[in-house]
Amino acid sequence: MTNIEDADPEDFVSVETGTRGLKAIMDEAIANSIWETNTVEDEPEILLVQWQVFESPVGRHFTGYSDRGREGRVSSPIMTFDDESMKGITRSGRVYQLVGPAGFNADADYVLGQWLYMNEWTRDDVEYVTI
Predict the structure, then answer these.
(1) Which helix (H) or strand (E) element contains residue 45?
(2) What's the angle, vertex CA 107, arms to CA 129 and CA 127, rounded to 5?
């Protein structure tokens, strides 16, 4: 068995894309660290703490930490938002309840970074906004 430190990065092949090299390593790491969310029917509302709102090339999104799911989240684009109730509905139909003040969360930031990578965007492609 070859030690991972001794392996040539070109020896890695992504199962998902068939690509080789460092991109293959990153594809595998992302595929194993980010998972699909429950359906809207199974989880119609998510409470986010330490949340933020950002603008991407396809619209505004929520990002934050779900205490119930114990995970960072990035939403689909926001369709409506009520600043009195702090509830928003996204393109998927899911309701996001923002709890407490806006803030940073490392898990949510990690998920955002992976989400950007999967969409072939960078942090330069998004801008945080105040709601």
Answers:
(1) strand 45-56
(2) 20
Q: Where are the alpha helices (DSSP H) in 51-121?
A: 106-118
| Phi, psi dihedrals of residue 130, rounded to the nearest 5° | -100, 135
Q: Where are the domains of the chain?
A: 4-33, 45-129
d(CA 13, CA 75): 30
SS3 7: coil
Please indicate, yes or no, whether the overall pTM of this predicted structure exceeds 0.90: no
The tally of CA atoms less than 13 A away on the side-chain side of residue 78 is 22
Residue type, 68: R
Q: Quickly list H helices, 34-121.
A: 106-118
- Per-residue pLDDT tens for 54-113? 999 999 999 999 999 899 999 999 999 999 999 999 999 999 999 999 999 999 999 999
CB burial class (10 A; 0-12, 13-18, 19+) of residue 72?
buried
